[in-house]
Each structure stands twice: as structure tokens, then as C-alpha cells.
Amino acid sequence: MINTMMLRTARTITNKTSARDVSMKLTKAQEAFEIIKGLMPAYRWQIHEKLKMSRSTVIQYVSRLKKNRVLKERSDGLLQKEEMSFPERVIETKIKRVSEKRRKILSVFLQREQMSKKELAEKTCISYRVLCERVQDLKNEGFLKEKDGKLRLSDRSVLSKLSMN
Q1: Residue 88 located in a structural domain
Q2: Do 32 and 61 touch, CB atoms closer than 8 A?
Q3: In this predicted model, what pLDDT tens digit does every residue of 101-134 receive, in sequence order?
Q4: What pLDDT sits at residue 11?
Q5: Does 87 reside within a domain?
Q6: What is the mean pLDDT of the chain?
Q7: What domain range includes position 128?
Q8: Is the predicted pLDDT of residue 13 greater than 70, yes or no?
Q9: Cβ burial 149-165 (10 Å sphere, 16+ → b, else e)
Q10: Which of 38, 50, 75, 113 is most buried by a 10 A CB count?
Q11: How far is CA 118 from CA 105, 109, 123, 127, 154, in A?
Q12: Which pLDDT tens digit goes with each residue over 24-41?
């Protein structure tokens, strides 16, 4: 399935390339497909950053992998291998800036077990309004819980996900 797709890709590169050039491009495409599959689950911005590819190239490769039923996409943009189920919770989001803020908020809990939103805003240097939005999202998704005005992680295993990336 992928070999046919790659042959079509190689043929469309240009009609004037030599057989050696085509096989070299074919190998690069195959290598990229394998690397992308190894990054799953992931959002497009993560693939773009990790592979140092242009956004348009990432979009093309992901489209081909989806078309050939190698990858599937959840409604929030999370990509996963077709045969695997989507994770219940992920720290990252479709938008890189939001993901960075979420990681920043959660990483503060590596040093302290609980704190108020005001303390958290000071520690993370995130405006209070934006912090409240991100905290509400994290609470709705089950990463944080609030009791007596203090925030804490709902599950300490989140910390291991933070150290993985």
C-alpha cells in the first residue's frame, strides 16, 4: 500500500530526474513515513518540530498516510496509527502555544503539591485571565482538581508525562 503511494510520489517529483534521484527521494519519503508513524500519537506541529520539515511537507505526508489508512485523526486534530486507540488524555493540544502554557502550569507542581491560582500565575508568568482559562481546561480534562481555593494534580502520574517530552 505505501510502496504504491511512494512510487506515485517519486514519479511526480519531476519527469527529468534520473532513476538514482528518484530512488533517493523515494528513500527519504519512506524514512519520513516511518519516523512520523513512530511519533504517534502527535499533532502536526509536533511532527513539524521534531522532523524539521516545512509545514506543507508535513501536511502532504500526513494526508498520504491518512489516505492509505496508516493514520487516523481525532476531532481535535490528534493523529494516531490506524490500528491503535487514541489516548484518553493528552497534555498537548492542537495549538502549540496552548500546549506550552499547559506544560508550564503542570510543571510547577513538580516543586509544590498545591497552590492558589494567584500563586500559580506568579510562578508561571502567565496572565491571570489566561491562566484561569488553561486551569479550567485542565480541570475539565481531569489533570487538576481544586479544593478550598488550592489547585493540585488529580493524578501524580501526569508528572511522568511531563518529563517524557
Answers
A1: no
A2: yes
A3: 999 999 998 888 899 999 999 999 999 999 999 9
A4: 47
A5: no
A6: 85
A7: 96-164
A8: no
A9: eebebeeeebeebeeee
A10: 50
A11: 12, 14, 9, 10, 19
A12: 556 788 888 999 999 999
AA identity, residue 56: S
* Residue 121: partners with Cβ closer than 8 Å, 6 or more residues away: 127, 128, 131
Hunting for cell 511531563 — which residue is that?
162
Q: Tell me the three cell numbers of residue 62.
A: 500526513
Task: Please answer whether residues 74 and 23 qualify as being in contact, where contact means their C-beta atoms are separated by less than 8 angstroms.
Answer: no
Say whether pLDDT at 16 is over 70.
Answer: no
The residue-averaged pLDDT of 138-154 equals 92
CATH of the domain at 25: 1.10.10
Q: How many CB atoms lie within 10 A of CB 47?
A: 22
Domain count, the chain: 2
Residues making up the chain, counted from first to last = 165
Mean pLDDT of the 129-151 span: 94
Mean pLDDT of 7-33: 61
Contact, 49 vs 42, CB < 8 A? no
Q: Do 93 and 82 form a contact (C-beta atoms < 8 A)?
A: no
